[in-house]
Amino acid sequence: MTFAGLTCADVNLPETGCAPFMRETALDSASRPSASRPPNGFLSALSTDDFELIRPHLRTVDLSEDLVLVEIDDTLKRAYLPHRGVISLIVKLARGEQIQVAMIGRDSVFGAFSALGDPIALNSAVVLIPGVASALGVDRLRDAADQSTTFRATLMRHGLAVHAQIQQTVGCNASHSVESRLARCLLQTRDFAGSDKLFLTQESMAQMIGARRNSVSLVANTLQQANLIHYSRGHLELNDPDSLRRSACECYATVKAHYDRLLRPRCEH
Ligand SMILES: [Zn+2]
Predict the structure, then answer these.
(1) Centre of ligand 1 from the C-alpha of residue 178, in Å
(2) The domain 2-171 is classified under which CATH number: 3.40.30.10, 3.30.420.40, 2.60.120.10, 1.20.1260.10?
(3) Cβ–Cβ under 8 Å, residues 101 and 89
């Protein structure tokens, strides 16, 4: 693998999980234990002792747009903890449709259940919004969970939060209107990315809510005419998130409540 003329060996990549076109550096805090933690909710939730279990193994990697982190049925070798950007979990159907079932952003971790259970990926994972993440081997994450019950409990709660998002997405796509689904999904993307400005093509928005592209185009125009969003050539800005919440279905608040409960700081540090 090469990136900007570098090989895996040049940038000290581990032998496993050397994803294409991914540049990575050792985390500063790996050599400076007192340094602040990377800005990720899972890492922030860990006690000092639990963070030390994985700190030496964390690497900072770029999440480039459309980068495929794993394909369904492949072994997931690395877990990703976004600082910025959003990872999309996708199922692919036999006729070629690709439908997003969940997103993972700065508040959580991709790879929790691969570390706790089976390493074979149940869905594909692609970078939706480019950014930066901490990454480490799934085996390192598993080792930490085996060494510490509190680490395992935190990892399980983050995995459950993603599971809650997936099951709500199933109900949402089956029952709610395209407009309310798009509003829900844009608000979630905003939360996970931590920005009102998003780069999303109509194709990716259609995939995010399991709708046809022309339906998404019509609904995006409606939201824009109501001045809830501004959209131009993939550049999308949420002008009025509070009003957009009124257009969203119940699923936005339901998923947020699950996340707030499951990821709430515990008194176990
Ligand atoms: Zn819904």
Answers:
(1) 9
(2) 2.60.120.10
(3) yes
